[in-house]
# Entry
Amino acid sequence: MFETSAPKWCLAAGLVLALGPVRATDQTQGNHWPGEQGLTWASIAKLPNWSGLWVPDPKSFRASDQAISNPKHNPYSAPLTPKWEAYRLAHAAAPGGFPPGASKANAALCLPDGMPALMQAPHGFEFFYAPGRVAIVAENGEMRHIYTDAGAHPDDPDDTWEGDSIGHWEGDTLVVDTIAIKPEAEIFMGLPNASDKTHVVERIHLNAQREIEVDTVVTNPDEFTKPFVYTRTWQSQPGRAVEYVCLEGNRATSAGTIDLTPPSGL
# Structure
C-alpha cells in the first residue's frame, strides 16, 4: 500500500513518533496552531463539513480482514514481534466466527473495540464539532473525544478504551495524537494492545474522490518491530445511523466461544 519513499504525512508522523507524545509539561496548555482550529462556533463554520454517515469502503474492510487472517508478509500485515505474530496466527486459526478467529475478538463479547481497531471496524461513523472538541461516534456506541483546545496530553492520563486524544487542524486535515490506551483495546479485531505504550497518530482528510481517508501510524515497542502504517477509507452513506445493541441477541460466551444452538421454537 505504501512505497519505499514515504509520503509527506508519513514523514511528519514519523517525526512526531520520534519525539513522542506531547505532555502538558512540555508546552503551555492550549492550541497555538495557525489557522482555523474550531475553538469558537465561528471558527467551526470554516472547517471542513464532514456531516452525515460514513462507512468503510470494501477495500478497507478487506484490508482489515487480511491483517487478521492472512499469512505473514501479506501487504496488510502488521510488523509484529515474533511473540505477537505467533499470537495472531493462533488467533487466525481458531474456529468460530468470521473472519477466522473472530469469536476471540472483543466485539464477540460485547466489549469495545477500542483504539486503534475502532477506526477499522465495519460500522457507520459520524463527526460532531463543538468549540475545542471533535467527537467521532460509531454505530456500535463507542465515542472518541478529540480535544482540539488542549495543546498537550495530561501528564498522567488514565488508560481508557479509546485513549486520550488531542488534535489540531492543518488546513483541511485533522491531525490526532492518541495515547493512554488500555491493553485490552485492540489493534485490529482479535489482536490486543501488548501494553499501554501504544501511540497512534492519525491524519484525517477528504481525498479527491470526496472520501474520508484516515492515514494512521501505530507504534508500541512491546508489539511492533517498526511503526504499523496504513490507510483506511470511508465513503459517504445516505440515511441515518442504525441502532446497534451488542447484548441484544449476542450469543458469544465469556469463554470466547459462540453458541450455535438454534433458538427454541424454530
Confidence is low (pLDDT under 50) at residues 1-19, 23-28, 97-101. Residues 8-237 form one domain. Helices lie at 8-19, 41-44, 58-69, 82-93.
